[in-house]
Amino acid sequence: MTKHYSLNTLLHYITAQKRELWLTNLYGVLATLFFLPIPILIPLLIDEVLLENPGKLTEYTDLLFGQQEVWFYLAITLLSVIFLRLLVFVLTNAKTFHATTLTEKINYHLRQNILYHLQHVSIAEYETLKSGGVASKTVQDVEAVSDFANMLVITLLTAALTVIGVAVIMMWMHWVLALLVFTLNPFFLAFSRIIGKKMGELFRRQNEAYELYNEALNEVLELFTQVRASNQEQTLFGFLKQKAKAIESASVDYGYRASVAHGSSALLTTTVVDIFRVLGIAAVAYSDLTIGMMLAFLFYLSTLVSPVQQLMGLVITYQSTKPAFARINALLSLEQEPHYPHVADPFTGVQSTSVELKNITFGYSDKSPVLKDVSLRAEAGQKVALVGPSGSGKTTIAQLMVGFYLPQSGDISYGNSSVTQIGLPVIRENVALMLQDALFFNDTVRMNLTLSSDRSDEAIYSALEAAQLKDFVDTLEDGLDTKIGKNGIRLSGGQRQRLAIARLILSDPKVIIFDESTSALDGRTEHDLYETLADFLKDKTTIIIAHRTTTIKQADYVYLIENGKVKDEGTYDALNAKGRIKEDFDVA
Questions:
Q1: Ramachandran class of 540: left when φ > 0, alpha when ψ lies in -120 to 50, beta otherwise
Q2: Which of 162, 418, 449, 538 has the fewest Cβ atoms within 10 Å of its own Cβ atom?
Q3: How far apart are CA 331 and CA 121, in angstroms?
Q4: Residue 51: enclosing H or E segment and its boundaries?
Q5: Distance in angstroms (rounded) separating the CA atoms of residues 487 and 470
Q6: pLDDT tens across 322-339, in order?
Q7: pTM above the 0.85 mark?
Q8: What does the alpha-carbon distance between residue 555 and residue 385 come to, in Å, rounded to a whole number?
Q9: Distance CA 372, CA 367 (A)
Q10: H or E element that contains 417
């Protein structure tokens, strides 16, 4: 998939939709061909009927119907014009339908590429993203590109063909006037390009203002409970009002100048039309141009205004779309996590598997490593505890185990197979990380347990019972279909952690990492919960990151982590005998 969008890329996507593009152009060409005779039909009546200068129009009518009265010629011509206009209307609608179908496919493809890229963006990059900015790029910017593509498909060929067709007819009518008309067109397009560049810059500023506002608004809404608890609504919503004011300023600037630009274009066009009306009268007076042909020439000149303005508008719109391309490309340039081949599978056909870190060094920046030459191992089915003071690197170890980050040196293996041979998706399918702060969707209990996968109610309730949450769910009015609010706000801290544990049980992983995942429970409840989970955890490799001694005692082996290094290791009793462990794990 491409990681860079430009006009050439867009043209490639357009031409790839061969059927829709072919039909769009076919209907567009037919609509143009049937439209071109319309402006000349009624003016010809002036010369051939009112001024009694018989010509092709009356000649063909007499050939078909015999010589007729004036009203008959008027009626036949009017009916012909109405029929042609209806035909053009039908063909134009067909063209628009296929052009819209084509551009909506491009719209979908753009969003699909962005979502695919975001799906594989590395956690390190993702942590720097703001949801408001991403939403802007996937909605507003994609719409801007799609609208330009739609305009390009609908306008370019039809407008160009109309200009060429009208030019040929006008040259046939009076080549001197026609040359004057088409000598001015390059100046119109040059004027449009200048205006388009200015509009593009103003449009970029307007979009930046919207993006900054969306980012700030999303953050305030996501943390609204904390905002209210801190009594900071006035301050933070005041900050949002400033961002909204910036949108107002940028939008007024863009809207006003865009209006002036389009108005200037229209003023220039209408002034030129007025000039040629006068020149047309002069041509009738000083050449063989008839009154009817002069009126037809002016009709064609008026007809020419629309396609020329469409082409000018296309230039202006492209300049305004360039910033959207740039923002989409910035999003697609975010670094993705590596794609390792799946050539080894240490999880299939076993109850559990071992996990080992070998000489791991890692830092969130190059200057200060968080982990320094860390080595540890958990055998298949073994329970290993990682203990140590806050900030010692325990959570970082857990995140490295599931591939959230990659070590600067060293290797991580499962069942003696390196993660580079297993593949990160396979690891996450079989290794569950239980975080201290479990995250939930603003959806039902069922959805947050299954994450939209297919699970029976029996399996769900079995997991809830193991997590000691079944009785609570039974008391809910809608049971499993009860909505739990944004990030589970309608649940207590303990209930959220139990719900996360139930989700873990339902996924049935081979290796489990508990990262302070029962910290919101009191000691007694935590002890009861682990007793309930005993059958589930039996024979599963379990990594426990905890401070409480009641939790640590369950481990078969303990690693003491301090300042990013393994300072000591052994059984709980051995470390406790050395005075390395104290109540609630104050590290000595």
A1: beta
A2: 538
A3: 10
A4: none
A5: 20
A6: 888 888 888 888 888 888
A7: no
A8: 6
A9: 13
A10: strand 417-418
